[in-house]
Amino acid sequence: MGEKTAKIEKETKKVEKMQTTEVASDKAKEKVIQIKAEIKKEEKVEAPKKDGPRQYTKHDLQIPRRLFHIIGGCTVAILYSSFFTYATAVRILGFSACIFFIFEHARSKYPEYNEVFGKIAGPFLRAEEHLRESALLPFIMGVLLSIITYPKTVAIASIFVLAVSDPASAIIGIKLKGKKNKAGKSFEGSIAFLISSFIVIFITFLIGVPSLGFGKLFIFTLFSSLTITAFERLPLRIDDNFLLPVFSGIVLWTFCGLLGIPLA
Questions:
Q1: What 3-state DSSP class applies to 47?
Q2: 110, 130, 108: which is closest to 120 by C-alpha?
Q3: Is the pTM value of this prediction over 0.90?
Q4: pLDDT digits (tens, 9 = 90+) for 77-122
């Protein structure tokens, strides 16, 4: 670098001398342009090259993944509430779970194809999911088990909690960067979870159980959302995409029984 700089300075002085004569003026101008180009080339710093697609963690917003989570869960809940029968929903989700299980199993057995899969699904995957199964399978299994196990209104509310409250909690927690507990849950994220779960449970039961009085509905929704939020803050190692709808269903069904809320 030092030798090149010295050479450039020497050439510059030579050009300045050349510029004093009218005969070599055009040649001098060309030389000046050439020297300036060399200086810029020397000063230019190359940007570091990336070694493949970006690797996301749970601390990243990863908006495509969050949107997929919300849209996918809400779509299932709406279709089950308005269009699909119990049998149809179970068949479709059961078939989907089998297909994704086969796909994930094959992906683990043929890691040489993971790079191609990573390029396609990169925005939706976390770093560890490039090497193991993705969260989509426990998501489907949790939704399927909720539909199989719980009354329809309870199952729909549980799916909405998974679809809306879980990503809402993550987005708010990441954006506000609050202090986190051992489970990695921030207070701000939990407040977002509580508010969103209250809203989706309230609306679901308002529509699903129209005979339910406002006072009882409010109490039921408040206690249910508080209990589910407390559970969501626990440092559990099982995928919350599976646990959250299952536990939400247990809580909702239990409070329905305690408060005498009729379920079809």
A1: coil
A2: 130
A3: no
A4: 999 999 999 999 999 999 999 999 998 888 878 877 777 777 777 7
Position 97, amino acid: A
What's the average model confidence in pLDDT over 9-33? 59
Q: How far is CA 234 from the centre of its chain?
A: 20
Give the chain's length: 264
Assign 51 a pLDDT band (cuts: 50, 70, 90): low
- Residues whose CB is less than 8 angstroms from the CB of residue 99 and which lie 6 or more positions away in sequence, other chains included: none
Candidates 212, 204, 126, 130; CA nearest to 162 is 204
Q: What are the residues whose beta carbons fall under 8 Å from the beta carbon of 108, sequence distance 6 or more?
A: 132, 133
Structure tokens at 173: 């927690």
Helices 214-232, 240-259: inter-axial angle, 10-degree rounding = 150
* Domain ranges (residues) in the chain: 2-43, 63-259
